[in-house]
Amino acid sequence: FKAALCNVLLNLKELGCNPLAQTGRSKLQNQRASLNQQIIKQMRMRAGAENLLKATSNNKVRDMVLLELSYVNANLQRLMEQLEGLNSSVEVYQNVHGSVSIPLIPLGLKETKDVDFTGPFKDFILEHYSEDGASYQDEIDDLMDLRKQACRTPSRNDAGVELLSNYFSQLSLLESRFYSPNRQMGIFFTWYDSFTGVPVCQQNMSLEKASVLFNIGALYTQIGTRSDRQTRTGLEEAITAFQRSSGVLHHLKETFTHTPSYDMSPAMLSMLIKMMLAQVQECLFEKLALPGIRNEFFNLIRMAQEAAKVGEVYDQVHQSMIQMPIKDNVPFFWSTMAQVKTQHYRSLAHYFISTALLDHQINPSDDEDKQEKALSQLYDAMPDGRSPLDILRQKDERRHIGKAHLKRAIIGQEEALRIQGLCRHLRKLDMLNNILQASHKRSLSKFEQYDNEDEFTDYMDAPDIISKTEQKAEMEVPASIKVKVKDIFHRLGPLSVFSAKQRWTAPRTVRLKLEDRDLGFTLKGDAPVQIQSLDPLCYAAEDGLKEGDYLVAVGDTDCKWMGVSDVMKLLKDVDEEGIDIKVVSMMDSSTKSATYSGGLPKTYSMICLAFDDDDKNPKGRKVTKKMSFLSWGVKNKHKSASTLSLPTADYSGALPIHKPCPTFPSSYNDSALY
C-alpha cells in the first residue's frame, strides 16, 4: 500500500501538483483558504444583521443588532489584516540562496471551492446529445480531478504552469460542448478575491477562465521570486517569469473586461502589470551588475542611468498603488516596498554619478568629446548653467557637483530606511535592511573621504538624472495559455459539429440493404461523414434516411470520428441482409449543412462496395440500365448549386432525374486536439 501511495504521489508531482507538500508556500495557501472561509462566514453574519436592522422597529432589538454588527465588523477587519499579512509574506517565496538580493513581490493564488460537474453534465449529455450520461462518468471524474489539481495544489515550476494551462484550454472546449446560449447549466463557480478574501459566485464560465488565468500569472511571479538571482541563469529565469506574468495579466485584462472580482478589475490589473514589469527592470539591472561594476567613467554613467530607470518604474508603480480605490485593497507592504525601491535605486544612480565625477579626472589620453556627450545626456539642464566641458575640466566643479550627487544619495538612502521602518512587515525583512544599511554606509564613507572642509551646507542641489536603459522590460504572452490539449469529452464527436450550439435529433436506426450493388447514396466530408445524393426510392430512404444526415455509427461501431475511407471499409461487406446504421439530423434552420460551397471533396459512391476482388467483371449479373443517383452526383458535381434538401413527400411517380441533387459542404474536419 505504501509503495502504491508513493507511486501515486510521484505521478502527481510529475503532472505539476503535490497535494501533500508542506512547504512554506503551501502552508500560506492553506492559511489563505482558512481565512477566506472565516471571511465569508462573517460577511453572511453581517448581511443577516443588516437585514434585521432594516426590518425591525424595536429599539431594544436594534441596539442588540448594532452591537452585534460592531463585533462582526471588528472580526472582519482582523481577518482582512491577517490576509494582508499573508500577501506581505514575501520571504517565504524567495530563493534560499538569495539572501543578498532585495526581495521581489509575488502574487498569491486565488482560492476556490470544489465544483461537482456530475449531475448537470450527465443531464445535458442525455438531453442534448441523446447519449447515456452515466457512460461518461470517467470523463467527468477526470475533469474534476484536473480542476482540483490545477486550482488547489499546482507546483511552483513549469509543470504547475502546464497543469493550469491544460485546464484553461479544457475550459474553452467545455464551454463549446456544454454551455448553450439558451440555457444555464446550474454549475456555480466560487472564487475568492486574492486581496480581500471576498467571494464571488457565478454560473458564467468566464469567471472560471479569468480566475485560472490570474493563477497562471500568479504562479509565474512565484517562479520568478524563487529564482536564484546570484547567477546569470537564475536572473534570466526570473526575467522570463515576470515578463510572462505581465503578459498573462495583460491578456486577462484585455479578454475579460467585466470580471466581478476586484483583484481582476482593469485598474488593479494595470497596477499589477506595472509592478511585474518594474521587477523585470530590476532583474535586468541586477544582470548588468552581476559581474561587478567597474569604477570607470562611462560604465558608472551607464549604470547610473540604468538605476535611475529602475527607480522611475517603481515610482510609477507606487503612484498607481496610492490611487483610490486600489489603495484600499493593496497591502500596505506593497506600496511601502515600491517606495523603498524608488528611493534606493535613485540613490544608487546619484552615488554612481558622484563616484564618476569624484574618482575620475580627464587625462590627456581621454576622449573629451565622448565624455562631454555622455555628461550632457545625463541631465535635462546642466547644474547652474555650467557647460559639460567646464565641469569635466575643472577639478573644483567636478568635486562640487559630485558631492551634491553624494548628498542626494545619502538623503535618499536615509529616506528609504525611514520608509522601511513605517511598515512592520518590511521591518522583518533582515536582508532588505542589510542592503539599505550597507548602501547608506558606503555613501557616508565616500562623503567622509572627500570631506576635507566644512562645505556640506553649501552644496547645490544635484539635478535629476535622466533614466536610460539598454533593454526595456516588455510583456511576453506565453504560448502555454494556448496549449493544445485532447478534449476530455472526445467521444461525443468532433466539436465543430457536436457542440452545445447545434440542435440534433435523437439518433435514428436505419437499415441499409444492397440493391443492384448500390446502397442508394454517397458519403462526403471528413469526420463525421454526411449522407448526400440520396436516392429517395432506395431501401435506406424508405427506412428513414434523409439527405444531409450525419452518420454516427455502423452496426456497433461508433464512427463520429471516422472519415469517408474508414466508413467505406465498414460498409464494403454489406450483403443482401443489410446492416443497421445510426444517423442524426441537424434541427437548426440557420445551419450551413444544406448549403453548397463548391466542389465535392472526398465524395465516394456506394456502388460495387460488395464486389470481391476476384469479381470485377460480373458478366452474368443483371444490372439496371437507369442512371444511378450516385453516378449522377459525381459526374455533375460542378453543376449542383441547390441549397434545398430533397422533399420528404412520397415519391410514387417517376424520379425527376434532371433536377439537381442537393450537396453539402465538407466543413467539419476539425481535429480532436485544440
TrEMBL record:
Residues 18-92 form the REM-1 domain. Keywords: Coiled coil. Coiled coil: none annotated. Belongs to the RHPN family. GO terms for biological process: negative regulation of stress fiber assembly; signal transduction. It comes from Pygocentrus nattereri (Red-bellied piranha). The keyword Coiled coil applies. Residues 103-495 form the BRO1 domain. Residues 509-577 form the PDZ domain. InterPro entries: BRO1_dom, BRO1_sf, HR1_rho-bd, HR1_rpt_sf, PDZ, PDZ_sf, RHPN1_2. The keyword Phosphoprotein does not apply. This is Rhophilin, Rho GTPase binding protein 2.
